[in-house]
Structures are given as C-alpha cells and as structure tokens.
Amino acid sequence: INDGKLQVAKQQCDCYTRFSTFLTYNYVSSGINAEYGEELPAFTCYFGCLPPDFAGGVTSPDVATDGQAPFAMGAAVTFACLDGNDLEPAEAEATCEPGGIPSPVCSACSMSIAFSLVLSFLVLLA
Predict the structure, then answer these.
(1) DSSP-assigned letters across all residues of 87-101
(2) For the purposes of burial, counting CB atoms within 10 Å of the CB of 70, is it exposed (0-12), middle (13-18) or buried (19 or more)?
(3) Alpha-carbon span 76 to 57, nearest angstrom
(4) 71 exposure class (CB count in 10 Å sphere: 0-12, 13-18, 19+)
(5) Across 101-123, average pLDDT
C-alpha cells in the first residue's frame, strides 16, 4: 500500500516454512518501523516447524533462534512434564513433519498409573 506517506509491505512464508525465532521476536511480532529509504532486514523462510504448544511441560532440544526454523524438518522433539509425571512412551517424543509437531497434554501424563491406582483401590474394596 502506498498513499504517498506510508508504505506497507507484507512478508509471509510459504507452507511448511517459518521465519527464525530471532526474526519473529524482533521484527514480525512487533512490526517494523522503517524510515523512507531505510533497508529492511532479510526475511528468510526456513523449512521446518513452529514450537509445539505444550502447556505444563518442556521440550528438548531448545528452539533454534537464528538461521533456521524453530525446529528443522525431521527434528525429533522430546517432551517432559514439569509436574514430575511421565508421558506415555508414544507421547514422549514427536518429529517435526509437514503438519507440525503434535503436542502431548501433561494432564494426561501417566494415565496408566492413575488407572492402576483406581483398579488397586477397587480390588481392596472387594
């Protein structure tokens, strides 16, 4: 958009590509205010995934900050709950794929242990 006073440019990545965390944090999320003629930073898109939305836990490795997507395509991500419970083995690790990184739910951690405790309690009552 160019009204003679203000120019607006829109930059976005293609499907399955992402800006680096550094670029997103410093420019994309806060917007860029550049004077006329000022050079804008390079907006490079990298093949990969955004960080998973994993409430109540941590992921490893840490998110890459610059020079690549937050997680490179094919990268394995390990999840751990902060409450000390264990995730089911099938949920403890995921891979960055074209659909993103699936996130486990920490409140669902160790559901088999909870089920075992309930079953044990029922056996005691019988």
Answers:
(1) PPTTTSEEE-BTTB-
(2) buried
(3) 16
(4) buried
(5) 57
